[in-house]
């Protein structure tokens, strides 16, 4: 395996949490720990993105975001990675294609907060993503209703399962809201109070 790429054995089920992590915060840690437990995932990999293709704002340098993420999220089954920088991919659909080719026999589950489902239909090849991996949508304060009414939720409503815990064993297309105790931490809020980056 390439340097910096985690090792995974055939048969493993690995959750992928992509994000800007600008900066990583307790909300990320909370959903990661809860998803590991509730969804019986073998590992979760954080994919710290070089840059969200839909965000105009330039994030803090990747090295700084990785260092903060690694300092905050300490768990033997959670790997903090810069896989997308290594692969040269920017969109999630491309990243998933590459990971499936690199890790035959490994099942990936895409994880994201409910806020991301609201605008998921603007992502590159979003239908392909939903057809190729199980997707767990993690509860986030303020986004539940909009997520349930979103274009993607309506388009794939027949593929929704009520049981997020079972996603790891299901064949896509399948997705679920994974109801967790919610945590209201947000990177935007941390940046606004000067807790990160050039201003903080
Ligand atoms: N408090 C939270 N509860 C549930 N999901 C979250 C929470 N914070 C972040 N996430 C999810 O984690 C992933 C990465 O989030 P991201 O790095 O964009 O953090 P953020 O706080 O949403 O940042 P920003 O405020 O800059 O958009 C996304 O799927 C996001 O929906
Ligand atoms: O593939 C896309 O078109 C796409 C559009 C928007 C966001 N994403 C991914 O969604 C993840 C969450 O991004 P963010 O900035 O909300 O943390 C991250 O992995 C992004 O690369 C992907």
TrEMBL record:
Residues 16-193 form the Cytidyltransferase-like domain. Pathway: Cofactor biosynthesis; NAD(+) biosynthesis; deamido-NAD(+) from nicotinate D-ribonucleotide: step 1/1. Catalyzes the reversible adenylation of nicotinate mononucleotide (NaMN) to nicotinic acid adenine dinucleotide (NaAD). It catalyses: nicotinate beta-D-ribonucleotide + ATP + H(+) = deamido-NAD(+) + diphosphate. Keywords: ATP-binding, NAD, Nucleotide-binding, Nucleotidyltransferase, Pyridine nucleotide biosynthesis, Transferase. The keyword Transferase applies. SUPFAM superfamilies: Nucleotidylyl transferase. Its EC number is 2.7.7.18. This is Probable nicotinate-nucleotide adenylyltransferase. Belongs to the NadD family. CDD domains: NMNAT (cd02165). PANTHER family: NICOTINATE-NUCLEOTIDE ADENYLYLTRANSFERASE-RELATED, PHOSPHOPANTETHEINE ADENYLYLTRANSFERASE.
């Amino acid at each position: 395996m390439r340097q910096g790429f985690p090792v995974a054995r055939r048969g493993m089920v690995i959750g992928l949490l992509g994000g800007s992590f600008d900066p990583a915060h307790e909300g990320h840690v909370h959903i990661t720990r809860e998803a590991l437990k509730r969804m019986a995932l073998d590992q979760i990999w954080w994919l710290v993105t070089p840059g969200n293709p839909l965000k105009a704002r330039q994030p803090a340098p990747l090295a700084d975001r990785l260092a903060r993420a690694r300092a905050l999220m300490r768990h033997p089954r959670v790997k903090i990675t810069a896989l997308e920088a290594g692969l040269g991919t920017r969109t999630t659909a491309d990243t998933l294609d590459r990971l499936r080719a690199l890790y035959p026999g490994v099942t990936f589950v895409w994880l994201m907060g409910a806020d991301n489902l609201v605008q998921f239909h603007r992502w590159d090849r979003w239908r392909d993503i939903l057809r190729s991996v199980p997707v767990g949508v993690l509860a986030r304060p303020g986004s539940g209703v909009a997520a349930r009414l979103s274009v993607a939720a309506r388009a794939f409503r027949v593929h929704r399962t009520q049981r997020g815990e079972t996603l790891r064993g299901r064949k896509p297309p399948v997705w679920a809201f994974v109801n967790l105790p919610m945590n209201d931490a947000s990177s935007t809020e941390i940046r606004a109070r000067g807790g990160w980056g050039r201003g903080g």
